[in-house]
Every structure is written in C-alpha cells, then in structure tokens.
Amino acid sequence: MPLQFILGSSGSGKSRYLYETVIKESLAAPKENFLILVPEQFTMEIQRNLTELHPRKGILNIDVLSFQRLALRVLEDLGADRRRILEETGKNLVIRRAAMEHRKELTLLGGSMEKNGYISQVKSMISELAQYRIEPETMDGILESLKDQPRLYYKWKDIGILYHAFQEQMAKEYVTAEELLEVLAEHAGESRLLSGCTIALDGYTGFTPIQLALLKKLLPLAKKIQVTVTVDPRTDWGRQGKMHELFYLSQKTIQSLTNLCKETGTELLEPVILGRRGVRRFEGRPALAFLESHLFRTGKSFFAGGSSYPEDPSEEISIHACADPREEAEFAARTILSLRQEKGLAFREIALISGDMETYAREIRRIFPKYGIPCFIDETKRVLLNPFLEFIKAALEMLIRDFSYETVFRFLRCGLLDIHQESLDDVENYVLAAGIRGYSKWKKEWTQETRSFSGDDLPRLNAFREVFLEKTEVYCEAMRGKKLTVRQRTESLYRFIAGEKLQQKLAVMEENFEKQGKMDEAKVYHQIYGTVISLFDKMVEFLGDEIISLKDYKELLEAGFEDSRVGLIPPSLDEVLVGDMERTRLKNIQVLIFLGLNEGIVPSSGKGSGILSEEERSFLSDQGVTLAPGIRENSFVERFYLYLHLTKPSRRLYLTMAKADQEGKAMRPSYVVGRLQKLFLKLTVTDEDEDRSFKKRVWTPENGLSCLTEGLLKLKNGEFSPEFQELYLWYRKNPEWKEKVDRLLQAAFSGEQDSGIGREAAKALYGTILTNSVSRLETFASCACEHFLRYGLRLSERETLEFAPVDMGNLFHKALELFSEKVEKSDWTWFDLPDEEAEKLTEEAVEEAAAFIRSPGLKKDSRSAYAIKRIRRIMGRTIWALLLQIRSGLFEPGNFEVPFSAIENLKAVNLDLPDDTKMKLKGRIDRIDYCENEEEVFVKVVDYKSGNTKFDLAAFYYGLQLQLMVYLNAALELERRTKKEKPVIPAGIFYYHVEDPLLELSGDEDPEEIRKQLLKELKVNGLVNSREEIVRSMDRFLSGSSSVIPVSVNKDGSLGKASRTATTKQFAAMSAYAEKKMQELGSGILEGRAERLPYERKNQTACDYCIFRSVCGFDQKDKNMKFRRLEELSADEALKKIEEEMK
Length: 1143
Description:
single chain, 7-stranded parallel sheet, Rossmann fold, 6 domains, 29 strands, 12% strand, 49% helix, 6-stranded parallel sheet, alpha/beta
C-alpha cells in the first residue's frame, strides 16, 4: 500500500511514464484492477491515449475514471446507498424551495434571492461548504465569534439556514456529488474493486478536503498509489511552499499527501523524478525549453542563443498584436491553415486557449467556418437564450403581468409559433397605437381606429387576435387559479407545450442546423426538450403537492433553468481544440495559439468571491474556517495554469493580444508580455495591422469575401490596387461566386446614385401644388434625405398611446389660445386682469384644453394626474410672465392661433415656383401683437415653444429657421390689408419658451429679487426693430438690461452690444430673403432632391436627433457621403450676407 510521487516539470513526460507503468504492470497482473483517476473532462481522451499506447490496443483491466464516476461505480457494485445524485438543476430547485419556506428568517439574503443568478451563487456556496466538510452545526458553532462583524454574522447565519434546510429536504432520497465521495469513503472497505487495486492519479493540480478524506481511506486498501505532480525538480519540492511561488499548489499537494501517509502508516516510496537532464517535450526546441525552465521564476536569466540556434526565438515563440478580438481569431485561422499547408500538421495537433472564452469562442464560431477549420470548443453550453425556454418564460410572464404589451410580444416573437411575420408586425403596431393592455382588452373586439389604422384594417387585426386567444385561452384559464400546486401548474404548462407541438418544431430546427453544418447548435436543440422535461419531473417530484403562486412558480422554473446546460462531445478526432485556462487540459499538441494576452484577461479582472467577500473569507480563515481559495490565491493559481498551458506545445507557441476591445476601447498588453520580453531580449511584438495585404489574408473563397468588400469600399474612395483587381477578377470568373460579387458591387456603389428621385417621381409624390409647412421646408434645408423619408415615403416612428412631448406642446398651445379667448370675452384686458381672475381663467383653460386635445395617453391615472398638475403649474408661471411682459409695453395682443393657410391669395404664403408649379404654406401664428399710433402700426409675432428654441440669424440664412420671419410676413400682409392708410412696420419676432425655470438661489434673496430673476429667465428671445420708439413700446421701463426683451441700453441711451436688433431696412431684406429661400427650397423638393447631404454646423449636425439615422445609410467613412459644412456666421455677418443678396 505504498504511495509514490512522479515529479517533473511541464513536458518532462510524467503522464506517459505513469501510463506506460500502469500498462506494463496490468499486463503482468491481468487479474488485478488498475484505476486511473483523472478530472472528469479528461476521461475520454486518456482512454484513447491508453488504447494507443497499449500493445494489445485494449485496456480490459484498466479503468479510467473521475472521482465521481469511481464513487458511482463502487456504490452500484455494492448496492449501497441507493439515493440518487442531485445534479446542479435539482440543487437550484431545492434551494429555491428552502428560500421560499424560510423567507421571513433570512435577514440579509432574503431580498436577493429573486435576482438573476443568485440562487446559483447560494448553491455554489453550499457546494463549497460541503467540499470543505463544513456542516451547518459547524457554522452555528462559530456564529458567536462573528458578532463584531454584523454583516458577515447575518450572512453566515442565512447561509446556515439555507444549508440546513437543503440537507433536510434531500437527506432521505438524494445525495449531492460532493457528498458522494464521503459515502464512498464509508463503503470503500467493502469494495472488491478497491481492495488490492493499483491507483494512478494524473492531471490534478490539487485536492479538496473531501477528496483527501477519500484518499486517506484508499491508502490502506490499495496495492499502490502513484500521483503525478508538476514541480521543478531543481527546487526543494518537499517543503511547504509560499503562496507567491509558482509551484505552491504542487508543494501543497505533496505536503497533504505526505501527511496522509504519516496518519495512515503508509510507506512513502522514493519519488520518480523526471526531466533533470532536460525536458523530453522540448528536444530541439531551445527557446521553448528555456521558457519552461525560467517562466515565473526568480532570477535575471535571459535567452542568449547558442552555436546551433539563434538568440531570436521567433521560430518557436512569437507575439502578435491585432486590432481586436475578431482580428485575433482571423490571425489564428490563417496561422492554422498555414501550419497545415507548410508543416503538414493535423488539426488535432493545434490548440487555442484564452482567458476570455465568452468573447473568443463567439468570434471563433463566426470565423472558423469561413476558413473550413473544424474545431471543438471545450465548454458546456448554457441554454438560457434558447427559444424553447423563452417560450416558457414568456408564457408565464404574460399571465403574471396580465398580458402587458412587452410580455405578449415577447411570447409571440419567441420563434416557435406558427405566425405570419408581417401580420405580427401590423398587430404589434396597432397594439401600441391603440393602447391595448391587459387580458380584458385582448378578449374584447378591437374597434378603435388610430392615425395608422382605419376601420378597414380592423377585421384583419381581430382575426389575428382570435387565433392568438384560441392558442392561449385553455392554458390561461388552467393557470389562473391562486391555489394550484406545482403538479397542476406543471401539467397545464406541459399540455400547452404539447399542444403547440414544440418537440417536433425543435426537431426540425435541429435538422436545419445539421444541414448548415452547425453541429453544436444541432446538439443543443437535440437535448433541450429532454432537459426541460427532466426539470418538470424534478419539480413535481420535489414539490408536487406544494401550493404555489404563479410568480413563485416562474421563479422556481428560472432557478432550474439557471444551471441548465448541455454537454458537447467532439464530433471528430481531427479538429482544433479551443479551451479556457482553467477547465481545459491539453495533451500531445505541437502548436498552441494563446488568444487575448491582455490586461484584464491575463490576469483576469476577477470573478469575485461569490456571496462572501474577500475580506469576509479572510476573517473566517482567521477563525479557523478553511474555504476555497480567495481572489488573491486564485491569481497565483491562474499563473500556475498559465505556466502549464504555455509549456504544452512541443513545437510552436503563438501569443496574440488585442489593441482594442469590440467597442473600440483601447486595451493594454498583459504583464506576461513584459515578462517574456525580459526572458527573450530579441522577442518583439509583430503588429498584424501593418501588413493588410490580401495575399496574406485570403485563404478561402468564403473568407476572401470580407477582403473583397474592404477593397470595394477603398475603390469607392478612390484607392485602387492590383491585388484587389486580381481578387475581384477571380470571383467574377467563377460562376459560383459571380452573382454574390455583383450584389456586393451594387451595394458598395449604391451611394453613387444618391442624387434624388427625379422630377417625375417628385410630381407623383407631391403633386404640382406643393402644400407645405414651414417646418417641412426647414427639414428639407437640414437634409433632403430626411425630408424624402418623412414627407415623401411618409415614414414615421411607431404610433404609441402615451402622453408624448408633442401632446404636451399641443396642450400648452390650446390652453394659451383658450386663455386668450377668455380674456377677450371678459370685462378685463391684458393690462388690468386681476391675479385671482388670471388664476381662475388659467385653471379653466387647462381643463378645457385637456378635454379638447383628448390625447389617448392622458388617462385617469396618477401619472396623467401629475402631468396635468405640472401643466397647470407651468401655465400659471407662463400667464404670469406673459402678463408682465405685455404690461411692460404698449403692444396689445390682437390675434391668436391665426391659421394663415385658410386665407386666400396671401402672397407671403402662396408662392409661384418654376414650371407652373406653386407652393402653398399652411400653419398657425400663435400670437400677433400690435401697437398703433397716429402715423404707424407696429407688428410683432410671438411663437410659443415647449422646447428651448433660440432664434439664430445664421440658421435663418441657411433656411434652418424660417418660421418666425414667414409668420411676420403673413402678419404684416394681413395688417396692411386692413390698415391701408398707415405704414405697417415690423417690430419684432420672438420665441417664448413655455417653462417653469429653476433658479439658483443663495437663500438671502427677497421675493422681489426672485420675481425679477424669474422674469429674466422667461424673457422672450428673437429680434427687435432697433428704432427707439419701437424698443420703448415693448419695454416702457427699460434701463440697463431689459427683463422682457433681448435688448439692453447704455447710460447714454444707445443700444448695448448684447442687444438682438435689426433696422427696419434689415427686416425688409430678411422678409424678401425668406420668400426667396422658400422658393429655392420648394423648387428643390419638386425637382426630386433626396440626397444624403445633412448639414454640419459648429458641434451640431442634422443627424443628431434624426429618427432615420438607422435607415438612410449615411456613413462618414465613405468619401461620397460627407456633411454639408455650413460656414459659422455671427448675427452681423448673417445680416450682411442677407442684405447683399437682396440688393
């Protein structure tokens, strides 16, 4: 019963020595049992290796097992402990049930149990406690010592409650995988398989306490136990290592097993030490051998080369910097095909490792098929995003949230229902527009028309509604009961699944994936139905007669789904292995490509320490509680795994790193790069971006398409290369690819024909009389393409039943119109209206406006009540400010909400365009104010804005802000019709921002000061006629800076520099310019202009708030698609240009 260590560094031949020894001894003793224990994921490969090594190509008396498989084998042979193993999904269910039953007792963890993934964290914590042989009673015993750490105290107490409940609920019928080894230890002495057998352990970096406890039982039973341990034979491997040392784990393992030998009186044989005279794996590879013997060691040695080999290690080790993870995967693919062609390597002789499997596995799945590279990604796939699980979760959520919009369409779009996509799109748009919410709304016939759907559409929409109800009605009625058991709910859900024939649909999807060569996906779809039905069975078995709410039932199911995984088996013997640093074990590879050698990946940024923080684990350690390694120790463990992987290849090591992540954020190299460059002074980083030639990058027709696309874009921007021509001609000459290349060519140069839709098409769309609004003209001036999409194709955002900002603006406008009418009909004027009467009229105006607007989004609920309350407050502030502004001057409000489109022959808004076409403008002027004296009439217009719009003369010059001037032209023309005997003079154009501003106050201000600040914040902005008489007519009390108009005066009475004014002559020029600009824009619309040429001005572009950004395809990188840069002009410069053009 002796124990023997087989020691040596990575590549020294420990595993081969062990296997050859076992084979030799098994041949000499054919009636004895030989067990080789390896990590679970390693078993199949070791069986294959042993078969290849065995002279008879068979291993009849040798078993390759993991610890768990050994336990199952022995207990089955003995018929002992017939409890079933509770796997991860079952554990989640038991823990969820425990949490539900003890909800009130959980002081700290109770509030987190419903968070995604938290049940799995609790399960991992309980598994860890079991592995380290910590029982609930042990936990209770140390609670007293944690009272000075209240958070840890309650956390530890809650974990103990759940752990105790977990053990109670499964004690009679189930055993966990962690406990299985304890059960084996209890019965080991009864096993004929274990008695007198030879045991070999390989591939372990260490053992958990529960594994050590089992080995302690096996030592006296076995004929011999041999253990391979990776350690540098030149070091003092027998002493207790320090955590920061590379072989700390190995030395810890040797110490633990040595102590077991002492405790059991087991003989410790002289160890077999390999690699003292050089490592066999690296024969003829001096750089790789040097890497193994010096990586992560102390000392300042460096690779100096020799007489027969150069100092430059690049023939064996190289580092490559790529643009991002996708380019790293592209580099790996090219390297693999190069090694195949030039070195004759098999795919199975090449492996890829990364510290970030989620990112790199995704890129490899996307890229390797284009290169025709078969690969096996060593992972168990989580299935949370599978459409079958989505169907189940959405079906339950739909009931819980009473058929809310989000849940209904989550269900309908799960991908497993026989529904016509176009019909579904229409129904979704209607449901949003009509505000269909709740099961009751789905049960009733839909009769409401909306802006987007007329009465003719309703029969078709209702037909869909009826089909949907027919599918779900029985299921809904069966699940709605409040006192249903887990069994009843599961049976109802199963009948719903069976009724929709999901098993058959999943089988069809599996077959489709197989035809596409996506074998991994096919296997997921093959296993997922059985996985879910197995979960149903467990739920019924564990909790069948428990009464459960629908919400708790959904949470229970999701707890089971959390750890639902499907295992994948390599479909071929010759394929590239892709794995991660911790899980994957490599054997017999010649080339390793390590992806993602970046900071944050190597070393990892840390997975956290689970429910217990690193500080809490440290405190528990001080109390004598041994748990799994924390973050600090894990960082050293990770370094050891890194050493093991980097020393696996016997021929070539490639290391890659990304310069940026997938979002373009810069990434730093890992510290390992610096370490390697200190060991190999001639080791440089090759920047793969420096050589982007197609000759280097094109390996297969499939992967060459991306290069062709890149070349087409360059050609479009004026760059041409002979190698692109050669590549293009190859595709064009091959019938298989010609059609696809033609489509790429058409797509690449579609922007070349971006001149518009033509005059005939424009005539068909808009007619010969262009009925327009000023805002539409401004849209055209901003971007012709946006105008075409919005007004030509009539594209718009989805109509939704909600109180949107546009509804708020409409309500403000209507309330102000109603208030003005009420003042006109009253016995008061704007100048003498009492405050109390103003408040009363404001209240009435808001109520009537809300009733008039009748926005479907304005309901009788708390949210709408708050909206109305806010509107009242803002309107109150607005009326207060408007009254003060009006009373500060001599102008009287005369007309409100003037619809100039209804006035025939108004020249300002009825314009002649070329080719006998016309443009008729429509719109409303919010307010026109007049001030009349004996000789003249002054006119100003005010436009109310719910947004903070500022009048900008440069924007007016470019046609981006025509509204105020067009309104003023219409107002002047209207007044001149009635006041023919007097000159009508433009006095000003203004925006008033309807708001309730926030003031920054010190607290010392008196009410009058606050009032002045408010009035200043609510001052109109725009342009004032600079005539002193007009200025004084707007602000009779003007001194310094006006609080009502954008004007200030100096002490000598002259206008201040900050004043926004223009002369009467300049107003006349602006008036004429507005007409000219409108004609220009109207002509452009009727010419069919629709080019993607958005403006850019200062830090502002037409694209900033455009809803069509994802539609138009505007791309700044394309030289044919650039912004129309507008020269930045001051107000004076803009006025000067206008005057010059209108001379």
